Amino acid sequence: MFFYYIKLALLSYRRNPVLSSLMVLAIAVGIGAFMVVYTLTYIMGGDPIPQKSDQLYHIQFDYGDPAISAFEPPPQLTYRDAMAMLEAPFDYPRTATSRFSEAIEPPSRNIAPFFANGRGALSDFFTMFDVPFLYGGPWGAESDSNGEQVVVLSRDMNDRLFGGENSVGKNLDLGGLVFTIVGVLDEWQPIPKFYDLNNGQFNVSEEVYVPWHLIASQELRRSGNTNCWAPPEGDDFQAFLNAECAWIQYWVQLPDQNAFNEYQSFLNSYVEEQRAFGRMRVPVDKRLFNVIEWMEEQEALPNEIKVLTVLAGLLLAVCLLNTVGLLLAKFLGKSAELGVRQALGANKSSLMIQHTIETGVLGTIGGLLGLGFAVLGMEGVKILLSGDIPLDWLGIDMTMAMTTVGLAIISGVFAGLYPIWRTSRINPAIHLKTQ
Amino acid sequence: MEFGPILRSLLRNKTGALLIALQIMVTLTVIVNAIYIIQERSQHMTKPSGLDEANITHILSIGYGESFNAEATTDNDLRVLRGMTGVADATVINAIPVSSSGSSNGYMVEPGRLELAVMAAQYRSDDHAISTMGLELIAGENFSPNEIVRHEPGTARTDTSVIVTRAMAEALYPDDAAETTIGRIFYAADDTALQIKGIVERLQVPWPSADFAENSVIYPEIELDGGNYYLVRHEPGYRDENLPRVEETLAAQNDTRVLRENQTFEQTRTITFIPDNAMTSILSIVVSILMFITGLGIVGLAVFTINRRRRQIGTRRALGAGHIQILRYFLVENFVISTVGVIFGAIMTVALNMFLVNNFDLAPLQWYFVPAGMAVLLVLGQLAVVGPAWRASRMSPATATRNI
Amino acid sequence: MLQMTNIGKTFLTGQVQTKALDQINLEVDEGEFVTITGPSGCGKTTFLNIAGLLENATAGQYLLDGEDVSRLGDRQRAKLRNQKIGFIFQSFNLMPDLNLFDNVDVPLRYRGLGRGERHQRIEEALTNVGLWSRRKHLPAQLSGGQQQRVAIARALAGSPRFLLADEPTGNLDSKTAAGVMSLLHEINAKGTTIIMVTHDPVLAQNSRRNIDILDGQIRDDARRNTAAVA
Ligand SMILES: Nc1ncnc2c1ncn2[C@@H]1O[C@H](COP(=O)(O)OP(=O)(O)O)[C@@H](O)[C@H]1O
Ligand SMILES: [Mg+2]
């Protein structure tokens, strides 16, 4: 019976090809456009580390000077507070982390020296964020405290410098210092780059990773946002480190509610203590943010995308209204025939099933076409955005493809509800009288 | 005009008309807001930087290693660049306007009054800055060569004279004409005293969407931290030819450095505006799709209702309606529906705009966008319906007597 | 008032030619009541359409009130239909979305009459057919006979001199049909020329003049002196 109805639906398409094609086109365009924008939201605003996003917390302090009007506490930590956090008596995995940029003298003379984007981090960084390794592994905690010159390379950097071979144990000349390679990462590009939302949330992951303390001890060239609310008391590097300048991201992994409570009360008392020194005078609502909360707080999903989502939703609404109108036209156009059928004893519910399946078929065709539009649209978006940001991660995966077609079918059936209800209410008597 | 009967007939067939009106309402809402955003972004993107954009390129040089001598390299690079054929002038600077990276600071007319701070971009360059960028000096003087400070990182900065933009002068001294502020002293956030030596008409900050887009302060200072942006202004016609030569020339001077970002100002602009460009393109596509879909919807429904009313139209023709009267019937009908749609659409447009303003830091809509959008959709409706209506008006009056 | 000479009508459907009317010669005077009969498909409706300026003949000459109407443009033909001719259709052809008042109003609007005059004429016409009290009703809320009376009111409201009816009683039962017929005769008695296509042999026999058509040609043009019962 189901296939019989499908056949009827296809026949009905053939009987009204223009009207039917208009409906399919409306569904396809609406769904296609909506899915392009929705995919952007889904990828850019999605949970980048779903298995742990509720355990990883970023710290925010009550930074700023109340005298400066409209000053919002910056989202990073000062060196002084980052060091205090590291010295806190907890065993929870944690890391201070920040960016730098240093010249690499490649081992091969064929490659000219270049600047690489680097990240200072503690060894916990790699385990906390489930960073995948191709060769070797993270450096040990003792390398952090001893300030050892060890380095982890990204896969791309290893390809570039060593042609992709296992380079663990080799040396690397970075910023005029010699580092020992302890690990090579596999592809790792969280979208968004949740662990550092301050420096381009869609930027490429860093290419080299070194123990974070080296940034201060070796005065590596820091890069990335720095936000000061009081001038340093001096002009040298040490004065900068002591200054009210925030430039460090700080993450801690708190496995459960107890840990969270414990850590939170520690933070609260730390802030109280600092207040006594005249610091931290711009109160914040919250000091611990998990990954999702942090992404919201930092508006990781660009406003543009949110505006587009609203507009694309309305576009879909127009397309559906359009479909409702055309379906109504189509079904009411058949009402004489339906009237006669009912007069001849046709069962109302079987007519309704027939029409529902017909709208489902229209939705399916529209969805497949819409999927095509969405794929094209996504390519278009890539062209539009192509610049220095890598865009391999932009694309429609299987889930999105299924969602597209599913949404189209639901839309088709949904758009059909009212027209079907209307046709089911046709009074055969009236209809036979007024032709 | 048979306005009354058309209206009454419409009220009997509410649903179809309502659907079209709803569609027009939502379409108006989306296109007006989208076009407004497009327009706002385009203003951003076309805002003049104050630079002689067509002839300027820049390159970033970063030195490394113990042997790198920042001061000697800078002096030598500038001398070589300025001597190149087809180069009008060259300078060293800490940040490139419109490039989206640079540094900003707060400035006050009284020391220590952070709450009065005016935000501005800080540019550090030499006495060739004005001539290289092609800025217009409207008051005061340019820096003299011996005024240029060479600043070693980690050493203290001293009070100095600066050149500011007109916008900056007006922001600091709102009650005075910019030209009259020459010689006045204001303060950086660290209380360094700065004396206004010259005023340029315009120089954009590195961040085009900043709300202090034209507040810039130029310091007579070369920062010797190893990283230099060189800005080069080429003689007209030489830019493209010189672009690769700039990099080759600098590379030949010194090999303990890395050269990056050798690009024209136009490229810098393009890169900075990738998101805005993407946004306006996507929105333009959304607007076109919407107009197309709504237009098609109106055509589809018009064709359908006209087919359904064939006999009625034939009867009207038999009763003495001419082509024009049939045509007019459908045009008026559509006009009535569209008018209802755009009126409610106008309300919804403003509502959506208020929502966007409150949630996504958009500026509120200028009022004239709404009537303009309404007019566009009314015309779109008429255009969409005129084809089917024309065909209807050509229908033979004999349709009334034939049983179709 | 109506004069046809050698009127012919050929339909072209793809490659097939249908000769619906052939060599029709006919004269109808002011005030006549003419019935037209013939088997289905013989060309009655086509004749009526040509007479009522709904269609153009493909051959011959047609004079209406002495004016050659074969070559008039659409605008003039619409105007003539509107002012001189009234139509009554077998299936009533009322506008389903308009109430009775607005339905009768349709031809008056096209004539461009003022509001007052239109109102007066509509009231007169609807009162004449006994439906003024139901002027706010929709056609679907009326019986077939009532609908046809509205159609007659609509035809009469413009006070045409010439009324064309295509099987006006074809969809009605005999009692209702008789009512409609007497209405038509009343109208005729007041001077309106009527041409009516009918299938009903009784109606045809009772009419003063009956034209019988077969295969697009006039087979018989019979005039009688017996007036129909009013
Ligand atoms: N529009 C048309 N196209 C082609 N043939 C037509 C058309 N209208 C009528 N005819 C043909 O002309 C002939 C006369 O039709 P008609 O005048 O409607 O007959 P009647 O009204 O006497 O039943 C028929 O054979 C019919 O098929
Ligand atoms: Mg007939």
TrEMBL record, chain A:
One of the Pfam families matching this protein, by short name: FtsX
TM ranges: 21-44, 307-329, 357-378, 398-421
Protein name, as recorded: ABC transporter ATP-binding protein
Subcellular location: Cell membrane
Superkingdom of this protein's organism: Bacteria
PANTHER family membership: ABC-TYPE MACROLIDE FAMILY EXPORT SYSTEM PERMEASE COMPONENT 2 (PTHR30572:SF18), MEMBRANE COMPONENT OF TRANSPORTER-RELATED (PTHR30572)
Keywords: ATP-binding, Cell membrane, Membrane, Nucleotide-binding, Transmembrane, Transmembrane helix
Organism whose genome encodes this protein: Pseudohongiella nitratireducens
UniProt domain ABC3 transporter permease C-terminal: residue ranges: 310-428
Domain MacB-like periplasmic core: 20-225
This protein's GO CC annotations: plasma membrane
Keyword ATP-binding: yes
Location, primary (coarse class): membrane
Membrane-topology descriptor: Multi-pass membrane protein
Example GO molecular function: ATP binding
Taxonomic placement: Bacteria, Pseudomonadati, Pseudomonadota, Gammaproteobacteria, Pseudomonadales
UniProtKB/TrEMBL annotation, chain B:
Keywords noted in UniProt: Cell membrane, Membrane, Transmembrane, Transmembrane helix
Residues annotated as transmembrane: 16-38, 282-306, 327-355, 367-386
Pfam families attached to this UniProt entry: FtsX
ABC3 transporter permease C-terminal domain location: 285-397
A molecular-function term among this protein's GO annotations: transmembrane transporter activity
Transmembrane helix keyword on record: yes
Localization terms from the record: Cell membrane
Membrane topology recorded in Swiss-Prot or TrEMBL: Multi-pass membrane protein
GO cellular component: plasma membrane
Coiled coil: none
Keyword Membrane: yes
Source domain of life: Bacteria
Similarity comment: Belongs to the ABC-4 integral membrane protein family.
Protein name (Swiss-Prot/TrEMBL): ABC transporter permease
Lineage: Bacteria, Pseudomonadati, Pseudomonadota, Gammaproteobacteria, Pseudomonadales
Encoding gene per record: ybjZ
Automatic annotation (TrEMBL), chain C:
Membrane topology reported for the UniProt record: Multi-pass membrane protein
Transmembrane segments: none
UniProt KW keywords: ATP-binding, Nucleotide-binding, Transport
SUPFAM superfamilies assigned: P-loop containing nucleoside triphosphate hydrolases
Principal location: membrane
Pfam families: ABC_tran (PF00005)
Cellular localisation: Cell inner membrane
Molecular-function GO terms, alphabetical: ATP binding; ATP hydrolysis activity; transmembrane transporter activity
ABC transporter domain: residues covered: 2-230
Gene3D superfamilies: P-loop containing nucleotide triphosphate hydrolases (3.40.50.300)
Source species, domain of life: Bacteria
One cellular component term from this protein's GO annotations in UniProt: transmembrane transporter complex
SMART domains: AAA
PANTHER family: ABC TRANSPORTER ATP-BINDING PROTEIN YTRE, IMPORT ATP-BINDING PROTEIN
Similarity remark: Belongs to the ABC transporter superfamily. Macrolide exporter (TC 3.A.1.122) family.
Protein name in UniProt: ABC transporter ATP-binding protein
